[in-house]
Amino acid sequence: MDSYIESGIRRAILKKLFRHRIIGGKHVSIRNAIKGFPPYLLKNAKKQVIYLIKKNFLIAKPSTGEVHVSLNTRKLKEIEEIVR
Fold first, then answer.
1. Residues of the chain with pLDDT > 70: what percent?
2. Helix (H) or strand (E) run with residue 67 in it
3. Are 53 and 67 in contact, with CB atoms under 8 Å apart?
4. Of the chain's two ends, which shows fewer C-beta atoms within 10 Å, N or C?
5. How many structural domains compose the chain?
């Protein structure tokens, strides 16, 4: 069962990427995707990025020695409903 904090973190990550139009071919590192969270939530935020990749909301791309992520274009309708 998801906690309120975990779902809030996932929503914040999706909202940030949606707001910056990180969709499809445009991608950012996981480090930049979770930037802005307080230090005590960074570990949990990284876990939520991995969860979002498993649920196909984010697409992982190996790039420059680290993993980059972008929003899945096939899930944009669902993502838009979540962030609004």
1. 98
2. strand 66-71
3. no
4. N
5. 1
